[in-house]
Design goal:
The structure holds two protein chains of two kinds. Chain A contains five helices and five strands. Chain A is α+β, with helices and mostly antiparallel strands. Chain A has two domains: 76 residues, Beta-grasp domain (Ubiquitin-like (UB roll), Roll); 71 residues, Orthogonal Bundle (DNA polymerase, domain 1), CATH 1.10.150.120. The radius of gyration of chain A is 15 Å and the shape is globular. Chain B is of the alpha+beta class. Chain B has three domains: 46 residues, Uridine Diphospho-n-acetylenolpyruvylglucosamine Reductase, domain 2, CATH 3.30.43.10; 107 residues, Uridine Diphospho-n-acetylenolpyruvylglucosamine Reductase, domain 3 (2-Layer Sandwich); 95 residues, Enolase-like, domain 1. Helix content of chain B is 35%, strand content 25%. Chain B has twelve helices and 14 strands. Chain B has a five-stranded antiparallel β-sheet with strand order 4-5-10-6-7. In chain B, β6 and β7 form a beta hairpin. The relative contact order of chain B is 0.12. Classes of the chains: A alpha+beta, B alpha+beta. Chains A and B meet through β4 and α3 of A and α2 and α6 of B. Bound molecules: flavin-adenine dinucleotide (FAD) and FE2/S2 (inorganic) cluster (FES) (2 copies). The site of one FE2/S2 (inorganic) cluster has 10 residues of chain A, from loops.
């Protein structure tokens, strides 16, 4: 049984016939070809699949596409500007070398933007705590935390 | 994951009926337990009934003696509610300690309470604060609600609509989190109502339970010392890859002490 689903992804209206069991992340990657959102686990713990739903970070592997009917989804592909200018948080990850293999990075950046929105004064300790749901197997987190601190400042300055 | 039929009813009656009439119907709230369980094929409902479009299941109301939280209210909303932070700060803090921010943006109190995971946090607050669980058909006292491992007093098609928490004079929750998930290896919720105390423990047995011996000791002496020597037998405590029954028994006293020290602050 397939159901029609429509939503907005990165500002553009999209719709498709999906099975109810299609996860949002499958819809994004396999139907829309937006492969920036990664899948790193089956247990909702790694955070690689984080996107924003109506402006809030969520794990796209733990929600069905049909649950997002009529809603607003932002993925990592939607952060940079049309001309390729990076979002301040992406720029901060670049400058502070907040990644090694890059597998966790899309989820890290999406959650980092959410932290900046909710906690614009977040200090290092808070940032580490907020990253509870994002696992990185490479970096040891040091540069990720530095990147987020700097990215939050840049986002605050941008207003 | 196996296939299922998806329903998104507009009313509670329809949701209850659809759940009951399906071969194996289950309601879907935040999906933070349901969907991982389905991926692992630990759950394989024939029909999922999404509560997202039903009016009146979300929100927080503060009364003179109670805080009422709608079943579909997310952990994030309880954590960040200035009203809850003021009326029952321990409850707001507990909600903020569940999982991670993205889990809190989806997971709901109704789902957590209905699930009765032995390591879940909310059940400790429900039992510790002598809450009442309201459903589409009745009101259930916390003492009668949690009946076993992932078992509650809920009947087929019964849907939680709200949880009513009594506002205590003082309360605190302390957990020893399992590092990977944040779930409680052991958690203790203590609450003071006049001269009476309730102390609920999660994570240690099949489901949340009260430590009545500690409650009585606290009525005589509201301090961490009062519970420091009270231990629990390890016989029927949980043992798993995270820790054995002996360690959990040890944690029960330690978490109770910490919670009482914080509440007595
Ligand atoms: C990575 C991760 C970390 C987590 N860490 C913690 C933690 O530290 N502490 C903790 O306590 N929990 C934790 N959880 C679980 C989380 O709190 C879930 O949100 C919660 O247990 C279930 O709520 P839900 O709204 O997501 O329910 P769902 O997953 O949608 O449903 C769970 C069950 O409850 C039933 N149900 C849901 N709503 C109702 C209702 N209104 N009436 C009747 N039945 C209902 C469903 O049919 C299902 O059986 C974690 C989850 C994840 C994925
Ligand atoms: S893939 Fe979603 S949390 Fe791991
Ligand atoms: S950079 Fe490799 S997992 Fe984080």
């Amino acid at each position: 049984m397939s159901i029609e689903v429509s939503m907005k992804v990165n500002g553009k209206p999209v719709s498709a016939e999906v099975e109810p069991r299609t996860l949002l992340v499958q819809y994004l990657r396999e139907h829309l070809g937006l492969t920036g959102t990664h899948v790193g686990c089956d247990t909702s713990q790694c955070g690689c699949c984080n996107i924003h739903l109506n402006g809030e970070s969520i794990k796209s592997c733990t929600i069905f596409a049909i649950q997002c009917q009529g809603q607003d989804v932002l993925t990592i592909e939607g952060l940079a500007e049309e001309d390729g200018t990076l979002h301040p948080m992406q720029q901060a990850f670049w400058e502070h070398h907040g990644l090694q293999c890059g597998f966790c990075t899309p989820g890290m950046v999406m959650v980092a933007c959410d932290i900046a929105r909710r906690l614009p004064d977040a200090d290092e300790k808070t940032i580490r705590h907020e990253l509870e749901g994002n696992i990185c197997r490479c970096t040891g987190y040091q540069h990720i935390v530095e990147a987020i601190e700097s990215g939050i400042k840049a986002m605050n300055a941008r207003g | 994951m196996y296939e299922f039929n998806y329903h998104r009813p507009k009313t509670l009656d329809e949701a209850s009926r659809t759940t009951k009439e399906a071969e194996d119907g289950q309601v879907l709230a935040g999906g933070m337990t349901m969907i991982p369980s389905m991926k692992l094929r630990l759950a394989s409902p024939s029909d999922l009934v999404d509560l997202a479009d039903i009016d009146g299941l979300k929100g927080i109301t503060i009364g003179p003696d109670t805080v009422t939280i709608g079943a579909m209210t997310r952990h994030h909303d309880v954590h960040t509610s200035p009203d809850v932070q003021k009326a029952i700060p321990a409850l707001a803090a507990l909600a903020g300690g569940i999982g991670d921010p993205s889990v809190r943006h989806r997971g709901t109190i109704g789902g957590s309470v209905a699930n009765s995971d032995p390591a879940a946090d909310y059940p400790a607050a429900v039992l510790g604060l002598d809450a009442t669980v309201e459903t589409n058909t009745r009101k259930i006292a916390a003492d009668d609600f949690f009946t076993g491992l992932f078992e509650t007093a809920l009947e087929s098609g019964e849907i939680i609509t709200a949880v009513h928490f009594k506002i205590p004079d003082a309360a605190a929750y302390m957990k020893f989190p399992q590092p990977a998930s944040g779930f409680a290896m052991v958690g203790a919720f203590v609450a003071k109502f006049g001269g009476e105390f309730r102390l609920a423990v999660t994570g240690a047995k099949d489901c949340v339970f009260r430590m009545t011996e500690m409650e009585q000791a606290l009525a005589a002496n509201f301090s961490a010392d009062a519970v420091a020597e009270i231990t629990i037998a390890e016989d029927d405590l949980l043992a798993d890859i995270h820790c054995g029954a002996d360690y959990r028994a040890h944690l029960v006293t330690v978490m109770a002490k910490r919670a009482v020290a914080l509440a007595a602050g």
